[in-house]
Each structure stands twice: as structure tokens, then as C-alpha cells.
Amino acid sequence: ILNVEQSPQSLHVQEGDSTNFTCSFPSSNFYALHWYRWETAKSPEALFVMTLNGDEKKKGRISATLNTKEGYSYLYIKGSQPEDSATYLCASANSNSGYALNFGKGTSLLVTP
Amino acid sequence: GAGVSQSPRYKVTKRGQDVALRCDPISGHVSLYWYRQALGQGPEFLTYFNYEAQQDKSGLPNDRFSAERPEGSISTLTIQRTEQRDSAMYRCASSRTASGNTIYFGEGSWLTVV
């Protein structure tokens, strides 16, 4: 089982602030990196799936980058809104772990008006 | 089906009883995953299948936990001789192929062992 680490564990920002958090994962035999948004009492929803070093993906105010050589990904939220409050999960799959998708513990974001 | 369906949604069982949790993945999805999720935590990998073949079961906590997917569609996660520490949400997810694709989660089965 791979170690996927996310930081910070939690974050509290004001509406309008931009923020970012980090996911680190084993870089050897990398296959894919996923970001999910999870609101308590709901199922996690996919944000991005990235596979190539240098990938950058964007959805509205949220974007993500990927560095497979050093094993990290950043998720950015520009101009945070209260509705962005959720836990953001990243997960990585490597070919030497059978492609199983292993999740980090998440970064819990709270955006207050 | 339209989404990943899990049953039962809620299960309360007495310690020592066996429990079976069912997952019906999105139609045509090859890969099926089982995760356990504690309150406020990310999903913890248990096991996953491609078609009917169990590819990785390294996340199953001990030999009381087993999973099967005999026809490559519906899967059952079985916990034998349940213990209180087994209480958690058990989530199933599926994806079209291997984990380079988005995985879609079910709503989960809440298990409480009393």
C-alpha cells in the first residue's frame, strides 16, 4: 500500500482568498493522480485525473498541477467561495502496486464569508 | 445502472455476526474498488477487481474480511465474526477501466457493530 500524504490537514480562509494545498505520492512507477472533492454525507466527486508529468488541469476557479518526477501535485483555488468548503482528496496509482488507487487523508477547507 | 449502488445503506449488527455488503457498479465498468472510510477521513483502500479477478487485496485488515465478484459485475464484501472496530462506512467505487480513469463512488454502507 502506497503512502499518499496531503497537507495541510485543514485550512480556514476568508471568502475571496486564494489557496492551495499539496499532495505528495511515491514517484516510482507512477501511473495516475486523482483529485476529488468530498462533502460530508455525500460521495466524493472527481475533479481531475492526471497522468503526465507537467500536466495542468483547470475547472472554473480550481486548477491542479502534477510533478511525477518529484512526486507532488498542487491544487489551487482562486477567489475561494463558501461553497468551496469541503474536503479535498488526492489519490495515486502506481503500476507496482497493481494500479490500486490509494487515497490521502484529505485537506479540509473551510471558507467563511 | 446509472450510478454505483450499495446495499444496505445502514446496517447494525451484533458483535460476532457475519455481514455481507453489496455493490452494484456502473454498467460496463471493468474495475471495482472497496474502501473503508472513517468519519472525516479519506477512503482507506481495501481491495479491487478487474472483471472478476481480484487484483489486489493488500488493504483487507485481516482474514475476517473477504470480497468476491464472481461474474465481473456485482461484488460482495463479507466481514465474518464482526468486531466493534469494524464499524465504519464501506464505500464501493467503479471505473471504466484501470485507475487512469475517473472512479465513481457509491453512497456507502454504514456498518455499526454493537
Question: How are the SSEs ordered, and which strands pair?
Answer:
The complex is a heterodimer of chains A (113) and B (114).
Chain A: E1 5-7, E2 10-14, E3 19-24, E4 30-38, E5 45-50, E6 56-59, E7 62-67, E8 72-77, E9 86-94, E10 102-103, E11 107-112
Parallel strand pairs in A: 2-11
Antiparallel strand pairs in A: 1-3, 3-8, 4-5, 4-9, 6-7, 7-8, 9-10, 9-11
Chain B: E1 5-7, E2 10-13, E3 19-24, E4 31-37, E5 44-50, E6 53-56, E7 65-68, E8 75-79, E9 88-95, E10 103-105, E11 109-113
Parallel strand pairs in B: 2-11
Antiparallel strand pairs in B: 1-3, 3-8, 4-5, 4-9, 5-6, 7-8, 9-10, 9-11
3D structure, described in words:
The complex is a heterodimer of chains A (113) and B (114). Chain A is 0% helix and 55% strand. The mean pLDDT of chain A is 92. By secondary structure, chain A is mainly β. In chain A, the strands form 2 sheets. In chain A, strands 2, 4, 5, 9, 10 and 11 form a 6-stranded mixed sheet that branches. Chain A contains no helices and 11 strands. The N and C termini of chain B lie far apart (33 Å). In chain B, β7 and β8 (75-79) form a beta hairpin. The chains are: A mainly beta (113), B mainly beta (114).
Rg over alpha carbons of chain B: 13 Å
The overall pLDDT of chain B, averaged over residues, is 92
User: Could you describe the largest sheet of chain B, including whether it forms a barrel?
Assistant: 7 strands, mixed
Distance between the termini of chain B: 33 Å
Instruction: State the distance separating the first and last CA atoms of chain A.
Output: 39 Å
- Provide the low-confidence segments of chain A as ranges: none
